[in-house]
Amino acid sequence: xxxxxxxxxxxxxxxxxxxxxxxxxxxxxxxxxxxxxxxxxxxxxxxxxxxxxxxxxxxxxxxxxxxxxxxxxxxxxxxxxxxxxxxxxxxxxxxxxxxxxxxxxxxxxxxxxxxxxxxxxxxxxxxxxxxxxxxxxxxxxxxxxxxxxxxxxxxxxxxxx
Length: 161
Known about the structure:
Elements: H1 9-16, E1 26-32, E2 48-52, H2 56-63, H3 73-82, H4 86-97, E3 99-104, E4 111-112, E5 119-129, E6 132-142, E7 145-151, E8 157-159
Parallel strand pairs: 1-7
Antiparallel strand pairs: 1-4, 2-3, 2-5, 5-6, 6-8
C-alpha cells in the first residue's frame, strides 16, 4: 500500500494554527531498529509515516472504511490496497484525515516529523519485511522538545495476505 508522503493541507493548517504556545511544540524522530546488509532495503525505508490523533483502527472507522465480517481491519486495508480498489482510497483518506502530520523516511528508514503540540499520538506506517507488509500503529507520548521512536519488527505487525 502506498500512502501519500505528506500531511494533508488541512492537517498542516491545523498544526500551524494550533494553540500550542511558541516553544511548546514536540518533534518526533523515527529511528530504524533494523540491521540490514548492504544493498538490502531497510524495512522502514522510503515509506510514508503518519502521526495520527487516533489509533489507526479508529481512524479507519471514522473515515468510513469497514472490514468484511471476520477479517481484521488492517488485513482488509492491505488486501484492498493491493487490488487498488475504491475501498483502498477510503482507507487512505481515513488515515490522511486523522493525521496531525506526516513524513516520508529516507532509504535508511530515518525521518523527523514536523513539529506538533505535545500529546498522545499513534505513529502509523507500513514497510516491507522479508517480502511481507509490516505495519506500525504505535501509541507514542510526545513531550515538548525532541522525541524519538525506534521501529523494529517486534513493535510492528506482519500483515497476512
